[in-house]
Amino acid sequence: MLGDYSSKKSDDFCEDVCGQGSRFGSGINRLLCVLRGYDVKTWITFLVVVPFLVLGIYWHHQKITFFLRPLWESPPKPFNVMPHYYQESVGMEHQCRLHGWGVRSSPRRVFDAVLFNNEVEMLSIRWQELSPYVDEFVLLESNSTFTGLPKPFIFQSEKQKFEFVKSRLTYGRIGGRFRKGENPFVEEAYQRVALDQLLRAAGIKDDDLLIMSDVDEIPSGHTVNLLRWCNDIPPILHLQLRNYLYSFEFHHDDSSWRASIHRYQKGKTRYAHYRQSDLLLADSGWHCSFCFRRISEFTFKMRAYSHSDRIRFQHFLNPKRIQDVICKGADLFDMLPEEHTFRELIGKMGNIPHSYSAVHLPAYLLNHADEYKYLLPGNCVRESE
Asked: Facing residues of 243 across strands?
């Protein structure tokens, strides 16, 4: 009877507190009543599993988003890839004919235009590769990064290294707007519009060839030579570049396509870094991303370029961590591959395999291998300040 009495007493308490009359009870009593119904497993779930789950989502939300990307974003329209024929002993007339084009009696003028940040070594390799085929080099430099960070005019202080293009160089400087909190792509677009104006000042005319690409997206010299000599080439042609990360030791894939070559049309051609055509010329050069000599240059670019929001934690900028990531061929931002199908995403997960091939790289790089040793296989250690 005593047991029945105690049970009934407890039930009555809960009924009074949590039932019809619960609104008259204290908040603490109501909470105690509610919690009495949970068992040990439920407590473990609330106090251990749920907090770890929340922490895991916070820590890895970017990875989760990228892994699920195939569910919410369709693959872009595939390019029409054009075969690319080249062998150094094959004459230009025959090369043009292999591509279905005629040959010109004289080559088109070529303009190479870039926005410059701090990639002095990559700019040297690029301009040495293209120098025999480019009539005018156009470079615009700002005292602001895309993210609004102040920077010195680095090219101005290093211009003695580029005396070999001095007579063919149109150099411009532009002041940054330093808009705090602004989307970095707005500043990037602002600088690209200014580069359009600089091109006109450089004297570009209709049917001249214009190379649109970042400094580290380097078209091969023979590709530019082909397009300047051949008739009937497309008005806009994207270039498929071999994609490297940190150096030419880590060949990621062949999917770099943002570099393009245009037959200039006044009032129509705009300097841009997005898809402008469905045509892609195969195997047309190299894209070496984050290919810097010094660790400080890595941290600077991570903060400076348009995807700086990928720095989710401050330890990403730790020099020791960056050095370890470089030698492993891992991702600086600890991200999953940016792919649109699960098959491609899973296939590219993990570190980039080491490559020991230094075949078909820019000639200037190989001719100055001692100076650019850090870009060649087996030399992943970078200089520290």
From this structure: 253, 287
| pLDDT tens-digit map of 53-63 | 666 555 556 66
What pLDDT, on a 0 to 100 scale, did the predictor assign at position 22?
46
Residue-wise pLDDT for 165-183, tens only, equals 999 999 999 998 877 778 8
Q: Tell which residue, 310, 301, 318, has the closest CA to residue 246.
A: 301
Grouping H, G, I as helix, E, B as strand and the rest as coil, residue 172 is strand
Residues 121 and 270 both lie in one domain: yes
- Average the pLDDT over 315-323 and give the result: 93
Tell me the two tokens of residue 29.
């009593």
* 144: containing domain: 80-292
Q: How far apart are alpha carbons 75 and 320 in whole angstroms?
A: 36
Statement to judge: residues 67 and 198 lie in one domain? no
Sign, Cα dihedral of 338, 340, 346, 352: negative
- Residue 288 lies inside a defined structural domain of this protein: yes
Q: What pLDDT sits at residue 354?
A: 95
Residue type for position 254: D
Do residues 191 and 142 lie in contact, with contact meaning Cβ atoms separated by under 8 Å?
Answer: yes
CA distance 374 to 383: 9
Beta bridge partners of 261: 211, 237
**At residue 131, does pLDDT exceed 50?**
yes
Closest CA to 115 of 136, 135, 138, 149: 138
